[in-house]
Amino acid sequence: MTPDNTEQEPVTFVDKRKIDPETGQIRDAEPVAEPLAGDATAPQPGSVDEGASVDEGTESDKGTQPSEAAPKSDELAERTADLQRLQAEYANYRRRVQRDKQSDIANAKASVVGELIGVLDDLDRARSHGDLDSGPLKAVADKLVGALTSLGLSEFGAEGETFDPSLHEAVQHEGEGHDPVVGTVMRKGYKFGDRILRHAMVAVTDRVGETDASTSDQAAEPAEAEQE
Question: Which residue in 153, 65, 163, 58 sits closest to 111, CA to CA?
């Protein structure tokens, strides 16, 4: 005997009853062919139903992609903005720390140099008496002055300078004050960079120049007139 390889057809029956036993209503004239229970065949691969289900699934997946990509894009933009804000804050912090550090260094130097101004006054008095013309003390004084100058210390208040109230402290004033200049320096002034450590104590007088020349010219004119 050879096995039957032919595909078995599904068994159906024809219900010729005119009244539906379940609903009690009159049926149509044509009988309805119904398959027996359990004989319904599953859809074959590649059938229309399977393809429709695949297409529906693909369309549903395509429909969900934009909605899922939008939150990710918003989250990425938010994280990028947070990172840029943190970088800006850190850069400002570094600049502020560097600025404060430089200010602290300048204040420390100015404080130390300010304490040595009294030593410079003593050296100036010794120099005016001729004690620093030669010898080991002169070398020490020169090294000290050179070191302070290299740090940014400078002196002001020499005779003949234009009087500046922000730099000079006038304790004596001679003349009418049309063009005041420094006459006598009683104490030098010192600056450390742009910071004034001590004002110069001076006596103020009028500048000798155009005023004296004009006075001499006016005195010479009557003498020339008498000679004529």
Answer: 153
pLDDT tens digit sequence for 131-172:
888 888 889 999 999 999 998 899 998 888 888 888 999 888
For residues 166 and 16, give the distance between their C-alpha atoms in angstroms, rounded to a whole number: 126
Cβ neighbors of 34 (< 8 A, separation 6 or more) are 12, 13, 15
pTM, two decimal places: 0.52
Structure-token pair, residue 111: 């404080």
Q: Report phi then psi at 165, rounded to 5.
A: -60, -25
Asked whether the beta carbons of 195 and 110 are under 8 A apart, the reply is: yes
DSSP 20: -
Three-state DSSP class for 144?
helix
As given in the structure block, the two tokens for residue 47 are 């059938």
Going by their DSSP bridges, the two strands 200-206 and 32-35 should be labelled as: unpaired
The larger pLDDT score, comparing residue 11 to residue 43, is at 11
Distance, CA of 8 to CA of 227 (rounded, Å): 161
Q: Which helix (H) or strand (E) holds 33?
A: strand 32-35
Q: Residue 201: which of 167, 170, 228, 222 has the closest Cα?
A: 170
3-state secondary structure of 23: coil
The amino acid present at 45, given as its one-letter code, is P
Percent of all residues in the chain with a pLDDT value above 90, rounded to a whole number: 30
Place of tokens 């260094």: 105
Give the chain's domains with CATH numbers.
154-209 (2.30.22.10)
